[in-house]
UniProtKB/TrEMBL annotation:
Family matches, as Gene3D superfamilies: 3.30.70.100
GO molecular function, one term: FAD binding
A cellular component term, taken from the record's GO annotations: plasma membrane
Protein name (Swiss-Prot/TrEMBL): BLUF domain protein
Organism: Methylobacter tundripaludum (strain ATCC BAA-1195 / DSM 17260 / SV96)
Residues of the BLUF domain: 1-92
Topology of this chain in the membrane: Multi-pass membrane protein
Compartments where located: Cell membrane
Keyword Aminoacyl-tRNA synthetase tagged: no
One family name in Pfam for this protein: PsiE
Chain ranges passing through the membrane: 172-193, 213-233, 240-258, 264-285
InterPro entries: Acylphosphatase-like_dom_sf, BLUF_domain, P_starv_induced_PsiE-like
Length: 289
């Protein structure tokens, strides 16, 4: 087996559609030929790694060289390998933006000045770190994509049956939650109706308004919980942010209807502390995204 890498310049900028079409060809052809690798596109420059049987990689590279969509096709490296760096990708793809390029450790200067076929040829030492970076990025994507809380497919049929049962249970909970939301809406209407039909008629006092807000927020919390439930049956999502948001809303709801004259100071302080902790958590989760 060999690993061959080259860089080239696009004749004209590749639109997302053109890139997608190119990738489709690569993946179909390479899948048949058992070629794996990665294609990088940035600043009108392609950098591609092809791995596989020597003769197959060579002949594919020959047809790539003849492709009229790019020029200055420059061979960067060709070496024998015993193991593939991109075993799962018939052609992994990365369209790197300037921000990401400048953040790559040890590679930022290269990308600023030399992201061209000639630059790649002159700085072969960056190939190693670059491949390591791309590989870890692709591996991360695969692990995120394959994260599934309750997979429908499982090698053990009994576990699979259990997962299906839990999924059904979650769907039932979601249905119940919709009913709770509907009842909550009816409650909001009822609270408003009750307040305006009591003296003073057609007027809401501050206390009435606070109680009405409480009823509104209860419905919003129910909707958040519904979203939490449904997210559970989706793959790839751990709804940390939503859970924190729901908790924030629930505690805010309490704060809005606090009766400060009768509540002990410790209770109010503890609630404030929880609110601050949740706020910081939400901010951190948001920042990470
Ligand atoms: C930057 C670039 C990378 C390419 N990479 C591959 C590749 O990995 N595999 C492949 O079969 N074709 C690749 N191609 C396309 C080939 O040049 C050629 O169009 C294709 O192999 C023809 O396939 P077809 O006969 O199925 O149309 C690439 C083209 C460009 C411009």
């Amino acid at each position: 087996m060999i690993r061959l890498s080259y860089a080239s310049t696009a004749i004209k900028e590749f639109s997302p559609e053109n890139l997608l079409a190119l990738l489709k060809t690569c993946r179909t052809n390479n899948g048949v030929k058992n070629i794996t690798g990665i294609l990088l596109y940035s600043h009108d420059t392609f950098f591609q790694v092809l791995e596989g049987d020597e003769a197959t990689v060579e002949s594919t590279f020959e047809s790539i060289k003849k492709d009229k969509r790019h020029k200055d096709v420059t061979l960067i490296e060709k070496l024998p390998i015993t193991e593939r760096a991109f075993p799962y990708w018939s052609m992994g793809f990365e369209k790197l933006g300037s921000k990401e390029l400048s953040e790559m450790e040890g590679l930022n200067n290269f990308f600023e000045n030399d992201f061209t076929p000639a630059g790649f040829a002159a700085h072969k030492h960056i190939i190693g770190p670059l491949l390591a970076h791309l590989r870890s990025k692709l591996v991360k994507q695969v692990t995120v994509e394959s994260h599934e809380e309750l997979p429908m497919q499982h090698e053990d049929p009994f576990i699979q049956l259990l997962h299906r049962t839990i999924r059904l249970g979650v769907k039932f909970l979601a249905l119940l939650m919709v009913m709770v939301i509907l009842f909550g809406i009816i409650d909001v209407v009822y609270v408003i109706f009750e307040k305006i039909t009591q003296p003073p008629f057609m007027l809401l006092t501050i206390n009435d308004m606070l109680e009405t807000f409480g009823a509104f927020l209860a419905v919003l919390i129910a909707i958040e919980i519904f979203l939490n439930i449904t997210l559970y049956i989706r793959s790839d999502v751990i709804p940390v942010k939503l859970v924190v948001a729901t908790a924030l809303m629930a505690i805010s709801r309490k704060v809005i209807v606090f009766d400060y004259k009768h509540l002990p100071a410790e209770y109010v302080s503890a609630s404030a502390l929880v609110l601050v902790a949740l706020g910081i958590t939400y901010w951190l989760v948001q920042k990470k995204e």
